[in-house]
From TrEMBL:
Coiled coil: none annotated. It comes from the Eukaryota. Keywords: Calcium, Cytoplasm, Membrane, Metal-binding, Repeat. PANTHER family: CALPAIN SMALL SUBUNIT 1-RELATED, CALPAIN, SMALL SUBUNIT 1 A-RELATED. This is Uncharacterized protein. Gene3D superfamilies: EF-hand (1.10.238.10). SUPFAM superfamilies: EF-hand (SSF47473).
Length: 133
C-alpha cells in the first residue's frame, strides 16, 4: 500500500478545512475519507497494467468519472503539476490532484450561483484559494 507523503496529507486536509483551522472535525474527516475511497476506486479501475501510476491519457477519463468538467487544458495542468516528467501520476499524486480539483470546482460553483462561468474574488479570497486550498 503506497504511503501518502506529508505534503499530500496537508493538501488533502486543506481541501476540506473550510474554516482554516488547521484540523478537521469528524464530519469533515468522514467526507474526506469517502472522497479518498472514491478516488481509490477510480485509480484502481484505470491502472490496468498493475503499476502504481496512471498515464496522462487515462487522466481525462479518471477526472470525468469523478464528475469533473475536463478539457485538454485542465489535463495538461494536472499532468504538469501532479505528474512525473513523463506525465504519469502515482496513486498519492492522483488522489491529491483529484481532491484539489474537486475542492476548487465546488468553491467556484459556490461563488457562481447563476452559472455564468465567472466569479469575482477579493485579495483575501484569492490568497485562500491560491495558498491554502
Amino acid at each position: 500500500m503506497p504511503k501518502f507523503p506529508l505534503e499530500v496529507c496537508r493538501s488533502l486536509m486543506a481541501s476540506m478545512d473550510i474554516s482554516v483551522a488547521g484540523s478537521l472535525d469528524l464530519e469533515q474527516f468522514y467526507i474526506l475519507w469517502k472522497k479518498v475511497i472514491a478516488g481509490t476506486c477510480i485509480f484502481s479501475a484505470l491502472h490496468k497494467e498493475k503499476i502504481d501510476r496512471i498515464a496522462g491519457d487515462q487522466l481525462a477519463a479518471a477526472l470525468q468519472s469523478a464528475g469533473l468538467p475536463v478539457d485538454d487544458f485542465l489535463v495538461r495542468l494536472a499532468q504538469v503539476r501532479y505528474g512525473d516528467p513523463d506525465g504519469f501520476l502515482s496513486y498519492p499524486d492522483f488522489i491529491c490532484c483529484l481532491l484539489k480539483l474537486q475542492s476548487l470546482t465546488e468553491k467556484f460553483q459556490a461563488a457562481d450561483p447563476t452559472g455564468s462561468g465567472e466569479v469575482t474574488l477579493n485579495y483575501r479570497q484569492w490568497l485562500l484559494l491560491a495558498v491554502f486550498s
